[in-house]
Amino acid sequence: MESYTIATEAEKSPDFRRVLWTGEHTQLVIMTIPPGGEIGEEVHEVDQILTFVSGIAEAKVGGQTKKVSQGDLVVVPAGKKHNFVNAGPNPLVLYTVYGPPEHADKAVHKTKEEADALEEAGKDEPPNS
C-alpha cells in the first residue's frame, strides 16, 4: 500500500517537480513553484487534476483565468492549453494527478529549466510510452 500525508510531502519538497508514485493509469506528482515562477504554458494529451497546498496562483485553463489558493482544485482536461503562475510572495505548493502518467517514474526535477531540458531531450517519458 502506498500512503502519503500529501500536504506534508508536498510542503517539504523544494523540487520543481517530484514524481511520488506511478501506476498503470495514473501518476501522483508534487510541485513547488518559486515566487514569480510558473509551470509554463503547455498542452497535455492526458487529464490532470491539481490541488493547491499553499500559496496563490493565477490559473489559466482553456482561455479562462482564475485566482486559486490553498484547498482549491483545478481540473485540466486533455488537450486544454494551461498554465499556473505563482502570484504570491511565497512558494506555490501543489500536488497533481495525471491520468495516464505524464512523466518518467521517480523523476525529480530540481528546477523548471531542468524539467524543460529533460522533456526536450526525450528523457522524461512516462513508462510504456
Describe this structure in words.
- This protein is mainly β and 129 residues long.
- The protein contains two helices and nine strands.
- The strands form two sheets. It has a six-stranded antiparallel β-sheet with strand order 6-3-8-2-1-9. Strands 5-4-7 form a three-stranded antiparallel β-sheet, with no helix packed on it.
- Strand 1 and strand 2 form a beta hairpin.
- The longest helix is centred in the C-terminal third of the chain and has 9 residues.
Described by strand count, sense and barrel closure, the largest sheet is: 6 strands, antiparallel
**Strand proportion:** 35-45%
SSE-based structural type:
mainly beta
Number of DSSP helical runs: 2
On the 0-100 scale, what is the average pLDDT? 96
Strand line-up in the sheet with most strands:
6-3-8-2-1-9
Radius of gyration in whole Å, from Cα? 14 Å
| Range of helix content | 10-25%
Report how far the terminal alpha carbons are from each other.
25 Å
Region (Disordered): 106-129
InterPro entries: Cupin_2 (IPR013096), Flavonoid_dioxygenase-like (IPR052538), RmlC-like_jellyroll (IPR014710), RmlC_Cupin_sf (IPR011051)
Domain Cupin type-2: 30-98
Protein name: Cupin type-2 domain-containing protein
